[in-house]
């Protein structure tokens, strides 16, 4: 019997929260905002908005920014694949699973233009057989939370 292990990408295989905090600080610096803005962005991110269009619409409104939502999201995505880190023990665990005959894959509710570059950049691609984004497959589907899937 073939064994299959599927993992979520964000905050399971990679530390998205730490990368987000760095990007939030960069955003605040680029817009002349202070630490309160970083804290607000991190808190908003923890609310788990499944679509970044909604997230950046709230950011744009809160800070009264002139940039369109699409530009804010593009700015965010530009560096995120370079900020996200996968801990060595995670990579080692994936390698052990594959060595033991498991097929390993990633299933994520992140959008393809956000999650796929992170997956490819962070070398999880060499440890996993496939990647499948499923953000919009289930109407009303929400992001995972630390306490489980909502």
SSE topology:
Blueprint: E1 3-7, H1 16-30, H2 35-46, H3 52-63, H4 69-83, H5 88-99, E2 102-108, H6 112-121, H7 124-127, E3 130-133, E4 144-145, E5 148-149
Parallel strand pairs: 1-2, 2-3
Antiparallel strand pairs: 4-5
Helix pairs in contact: 1-2, 1-4, 3-4, 4-6
Verbal overview:
This protein is α/β, with parallel strands linked by helices and 150 residues long. The protein has two domains: 3-14 and 86-149, HAD superfamily/HAD-like (Rossmann fold, 3-Layer(aba) Sandwich); 16-83. Helices cover 53% and strands 13% of the residues. It contains seven helices and five strands, in the order βαααααβααβββ. It has helices at residues 16-30, 35-46, 52-63, 69-83, 88-99, 112-121, 124-127, and strands at residues 3-7, 102-108, 130-133, 144-145, 148-149. It has a three-stranded parallel β-sheet with strand order 1-2-3, with helices on one face. A two-stranded antiparallel sheet has the order 4-5. β4 (144-145) and β5 form a beta hairpin. α1 (16-30) crosses α4 (69-83) and α3 (52-63) packs across α4 (69-83). The chain is elongated, with a radius of gyration of 16 Å. The two termini are 31 Å apart. The model is unreliable at 119-127 and 129-150 (pLDDT under 50).
């Amino acid at each position: 019997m073939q064994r299959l292990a599927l993992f979520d990408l964000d905050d399971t295989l990679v530390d998205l929260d730490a990368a987000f905090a760095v990007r939030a600080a960069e955003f605040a610096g680029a817009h002349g905002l202070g630490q309160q803005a970083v804290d607000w962005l991190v808190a908003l991110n923890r609310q788990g908005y499944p679509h970044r269009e909604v997230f950046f619409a709230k950011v744009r409104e809160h800070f009264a920014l002139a940039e369109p939502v699409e530009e804010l999201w593009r700015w965010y995505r530009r560096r995120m694949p370079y900020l996200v880190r996968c801990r060595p023990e995670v990579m080692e665990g994936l390698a052990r699973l594959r060595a033991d005959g498991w097929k390993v894959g990633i299933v994520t509710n992140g959008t393809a233009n956000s999650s796929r570059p992170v997956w490819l950049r962070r070398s999880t691609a060499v440890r996993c057989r496939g990647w499948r984004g499923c953000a919009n497959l289930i109407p009303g589907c929400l992001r995972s939370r630390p306490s489980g899937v909502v």
